[in-house]
Amino acid sequence: MIASGKYWFCVTHHVVESADGCPNEERLGPYDTAEEASLALEKVQERNVEWDRETASNDEASRD
Length: 64
What we know:
About 45% of the residues lie in helices and about 20% in strands. The longest helix is centred in the last third of the chain and has 24 residues, at about 40-64. It is α+β, with helices and mostly antiparallel strands.
């Protein structure tokens, strides 16, 4: 595992990487810890659910 610095999650290879990993367009981050980077896809899913709720709420409010 990577020891220190910033970390990214590679969406192509599904691994945590250091700064010298895949190109940025293939990564999520940076994160402060490798553990945070390893949870990147979960965080994306949580945000998507939250944004979907907000969009639905805003759509409903605009119909009133």
